[in-house]
C-alpha cells in the first residue's frame, strides 16, 4: 500500500517512514505543504498522513485545496493533544481521521489500513499467474494452494511483477515501486529480494532479461 507522509520534523518523519515500512507500507515522504499538495494532486495514493504545521502551506490549507480539486485520497491528520479546534476544522474540511501526538505507530498503521479498506474503489482483486496467487488485501501468497511465507519486500516485489502482467520492469522501476522516491537504496537490493523470492517460489518464476530488468515467466 503506497501512502504519502507530509511531516516537516526530520526526526519524526524519518521514524514514521521507517516504522510504517516495517508494517508493509510504501512511504513517500515530503516536508512541506506545497509538495504535499502537488503529490496528492498528481499521484495515486491509498492514503495520506498529513501534519497540520507544515511550512510553505499549512496542512489545513493543503486539505482544503486538494478536496476542492476533487482529490478523494483518504487523509489522516496528525494533531497536537490540545488542538481540538484544529481537529474539528480538519474533519470539516475533509479529513477522514486523526491521530494525536505523541503517535503510537501501531495505532497509526491500523487506522491507515482501516481508511484504505473503507475508501471507495480501493479493493484490489486477487492476482493470479498460473498456480501462483497473491491477495493484496490479506497480504497472502499461495503456490499450488499452499501459503508461502514472504517478507514485506518480497511480497511487494512479487505484487509489482504480477500487476505488470509479464512485462519487463527495470531495476529503477522496481526500486521506485518498493521504496518510493527520495530514499537511499543499496545497489544490490533488488537482486537480493529476487534471489530470495526464487529460493522460496522456485527459480523458474522470475526471469532476468539481461541488461533490462526482470519479469514473470509466461504462465
Automatic annotation (TrEMBL):
Coiled coil location? none
Q: Which residues carry this modification: 4-aspartylphosphate?
A: 51
- Any idea where the Response regulatory domain is? 2-116
Q: Which InterPro entries match?
A: CheY-like_superfamily (IPR011006), OmpR/PhoB-type_DNA-bd (IPR001867), Sig_transdc_resp-reg_receiver (IPR001789), WalR-like (IPR039420), WH-like_DNA-bd_sf (IPR036388)
Q: Which PROSITE patterns match?
A: OMPR_PHOB, RESPONSE_REGULATORY
Q: Which GO terms describe its molecular function?
A: phosphorelay response regulator activity; transcription cis-regulatory region binding
One cellular component GO annotation, for this chain's record?
A: cytosol
Q: OmpR/PhoB-type domain spans which residues?
A: 124-218
Query: Is Zinc one of the keywords UniProt gives this record?
Result: no
One Pfam assignment: Trans_reg_C
Q: Which UniProt keywords apply?
A: Cytoplasm, DNA-binding, Phosphoprotein, Transcription, Transcription regulation, Two-component regulatory system
* Chief location category: cytoplasm
Residues annotated as DNA-binding region?
A: 124-218
Subcellular compartments: Cytoplasm
Biological process GO terms, please?
Answer: regulation of DNA-templated transcription
Domain of life of the organism encoding this protein: Bacteria
UniProt xrefs under PANTHER family: REGULATOR OF RPOS, TRANSCRIPTIONAL REGULATORY PROTEIN QSEB
Protein name (database record): DNA-binding response OmpR family regulator
Amino acid at each position: 500500500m503506497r501512502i504519502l507522509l507530509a511531516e516537516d520534523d526530520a526526526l519524526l518523519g524519518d521514524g514514521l517512514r521507517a516504522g510504517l515500512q516495517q508494517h508493509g507500507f510504501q512511504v513517500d515522504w515530503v516536508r512541506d505543504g506545497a509538495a504535499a499538495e502537488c503529490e496528492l494532486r498528481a499521484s495515486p495514493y491509498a492514503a495520506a498522513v498529513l501534519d497540520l504545521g507544515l511550512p510553505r502551506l499549512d496542512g489545513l490549507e493543503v486539505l482544503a485545496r486538494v478536496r476542492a480539486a476533487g482529490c478523494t485520497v483518504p487523509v489522516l491528520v496528525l494533531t497536537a493533544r490540545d488542538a481540538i479546534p484544529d481537529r474539528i476544522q480538519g474533519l470539516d474540511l475533509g479529513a477522514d481521521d486523526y491521530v494525536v501526538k505523541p503517535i503510537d505507530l501501531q495505532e497509526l498503521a491500523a487506522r491507515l489500513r482501516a481508511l484504505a479498506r473503507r475508501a471507495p474503489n480501493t479493493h484490489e482483486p486477487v492476482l493470479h499467474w498460473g498456480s501462483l496467487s497473491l491477495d493484496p488485501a490479506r497480504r497472502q501468497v499461495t503456490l499450488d494452494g499452499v501459503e508461502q511465507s514472504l517478507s514485506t519486500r518480497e511480497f511487494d516485489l512479487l505484487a509489482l511483477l504480477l500487476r505488470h502482467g509479464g512485462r519487463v520492469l527495470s531495476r529503477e522501476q522496481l526500486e521506485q515501486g518498493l521504496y518510493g522516491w527520495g530514499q537511499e537504496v543499496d545497489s544490490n537490493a533488488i537482486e537480493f529480494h529476487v534471489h530470495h523470492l526464487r529460493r522460496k517460489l522456485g527459480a523458474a518464476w522470475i526471469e532476468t532479461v539481461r541488461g533490462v530488468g526482470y519479469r514473470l515467466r509466461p504462465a
